[in-house]
Design a protein that fits this description.
The complex is a heterodimer of chains A (176) and B (330). Chain A is an alpha+beta fold and 176 residues long. In chain A, 22% of the residues lie in helices and 14% in strands. The longest helix of chain B is centred in the first third of the chain and has 39 residues. In chain B, helix 1 crosses helix 10, helix 2 packs across helix 10 and helix 5 packs parallel to helix 12. The chains are: A alpha+beta (176), B mainly alpha (330). Chains A and B meet through helix 1 of A and helix 1 and helix 11 of B.
């Protein structure tokens, strides 16, 4: 019985390989055929704008703190109306490991990942992206979200004007 | 005088044709192997160079020729440099006695489609396939490397033990056809190929040539996950290429040996004889590739045990049975 099993076990694999010989290869021939990435694919990073067309980034450094390979750097400044922004913002994609921790850390949903994975270039400095290359005109994901409308202190709208926000208390009227 | 000159010219033409065919066939065998193996694993295989990757052998050749020819500092220089040549040389020389077609009639001259019809052609073949071990063993020895030495040793042990089974497998064929000449052996298979007359010998022979060509189930000498690359670990550039080509030329030679001894040589209906010969060689080569894509590698002791404890006794038994049968039939 065991001999019969051995013979069967020797012959059967040949049938399997012969069958697979006539199957279509599963390979995607990359430069000609391209794979459609998943909607939440972690590719090149971008900086988005809020629905009002202002920069979402408030230069809080959380992304650069979260980044395990330290590829994000920036300099924070403030506009006259009190709105913070990054004077310069730089991502070195030759160090980026596309882990997405920066997007998770971002409180304003400014930094987001796209499905673009074709970053290869022959020039090393071309993979260091500056702010003007990172910043896009649209909102990216979460199109409705505007940080200053929900949490800002009198920057985008006067105090108490945001939805769900009560007007500031008049300290003097509360006197006994 | 004129006749001698013509004979020499004919021999040179035959030599050139056979050499060219065998070498280019070997190069494309590499491509075919990579392609077929890839398809068995649902990949495409090489498809970048030329249409369907058909120029891949050429690209490989250019790459190998342009690579640096490294010789390890403590290697035995001359032996190291000569070993690949032995490997290719013996494989190419072996093709000299193989009849690859029916005799041609051109301008009233009969041209035998074999380079040299030795009356002991079979012994010549075996002598050369034994000599081929030297290329591998010396290459492994001269490299001054553990892995290469182990690979060379394994190759030597394996080839000696399987040569015995190989020799025993062809004895029934020689007894039945009463000749050592390959042309006579082919002629004796006009009605029925030897594979059907001596099925057991055929089986032993197929297994033994698989071991002889150092291919998967029996690719111990170069077992890449144990010995890096076995005997050619230290070789680079065209010297490695020569080992590589030698291996595939050897595959073709063993395939044609199988064809000549067991599959009826160039005999076959409808097609011209050379065509039949090619088809049979290619079929054997496909079978070899198929086996490589299917069967895992044996362990070293299993390999030796299988050779000495199963194949050799079976071969001896087969000779005995065939001898009794031949005597009984008279």
């Amino acid at each position: 019985m065991s001999l019969w099993r051995d013979i069967k076990g020797t012959i059967q694999p040949f049938w399997v390989t012969l069958r697979y010989l006539f199957c279509r290869p599963v390979t995607i021939c990359y430069p000609e055929q391209k794979q459609t990435p998943a909607p939440r694919y972690r590719g090149r990073l971008i900086l988005t704008r809020d629905p009002d067309g202002e920069e979402r980034c408030v230069a809080c450094y959380l992304c650069s703190a979260a980044c395990p390979v330290d590829c994000i750097s920036m300099q924070a400044t403030e506009r006259e109306d009190g709105r913070r922004y990054a004077a310069w913002f730089r991502i070195n994609f030759s160090r980026c490991i596309f882990c997405g921790l920066c997007t998770e850390a971002c409180p304003t949903l400014a930094i987001q990942m796209t499905a673009d994975y074709e970053l290869a270039t022959r020039e090393l400095l071309q993979v260091v992206y500056e702010k003007d290359e990172l910043l896009i005109d649209g909102c990216g994901k979460n199109a409705q979200y505007n940080f200053y409308r929900l949490a800002g202190i009198g920057v985008a709208a006067p105090r108490g004007a945001n939805p769900g926000e009560s007007p500031p208390e008049d300290i003097k009227s509360n006197l006994p | 005088m004129n006749d001698v000159l013509l004979t020499i010219i004919l021999i040179v033409i035959k030599l050139g044709l056979v050499l060219g065919t065998v070498l280019s066939l070997a190069a494309y065998m590499v491509l075919a192997e990579r392609k077929v193996l890839a398809r068995m694993q649902m990949r495409h295989g090489p498809n970048r160079v030329g249409p369907f990757g058909l120029l891949q052998p050429l690209a490989d050749l250019i790459k190998l020729l342009c690579k640096e020819d490294l010789i390890p500092e403590r290697a035995d220089r001359w032996v190291f440099m000569l070993a690949p040549a032995i490997s290719v040389g013996t494989a190419l020389l072996a093709f000299a006695v193989i009849p690859f077609g029916a005799p041609l009639q051109i301008f009233g001259r009969t041209i035998e489609l074999v380079i040299c019809d030795l009356n002991i052609g079979l012994l010549y073949l075996f002598a050369l396939s034994s000599l081929a071990v030297y290329g591998v063993a010396l290459g492994g020895w001269a490299s001054q490397s553990k892995f290469a030495l182990l690979g060379g040793l394994r190759a030597m042990a394996q080839m000696i033990s399987y040569e015995l089974a190989l020799g025993l497998a062809i004895v029934p064929v020689v007894m039945a056809s009463k000749s050592f000449s390959l042309t006579a052996i082919v002629a004796s298979q006009q009605s029925l190929p030897n594979a059907l007359r001596h099925p057991l010998a055929f089986l032993i022979f197929v297994i033994a040539i698989m071991a002889e060509s150092k291919r998967t189930p029996f690719d111990m000498p170069e077992a890449e996950n144990e010995l890096v690359a076995g005997y050619h670990t230290e070789y680079s550039g065209m010297r490695f290429g020569m080992f590589f080509v030698g291996e595939y030329v050897n595959l073709i030679v063993l395939g044609s040996m199988l064809t000549v001894l067991f599959l009826g040589g160039w005999h076959g209906p409808f097609l011209p004889s050379v065509g039949w010969f090619l088809i049979k060689i290619l079929a054997v080569a496909f079978f070899f590739i198929w086996v490589r894509g299917t069967v895992p590698r044996l362990r070293y002791d299993q390999l030796m045990a299988f050779g000495w404890k199963i194949l050799v006794p079976l071969g001896l038994l087969n000779i005995l049975v065939t001898a009794v049968w031949l005597l009984w039939r008279g």
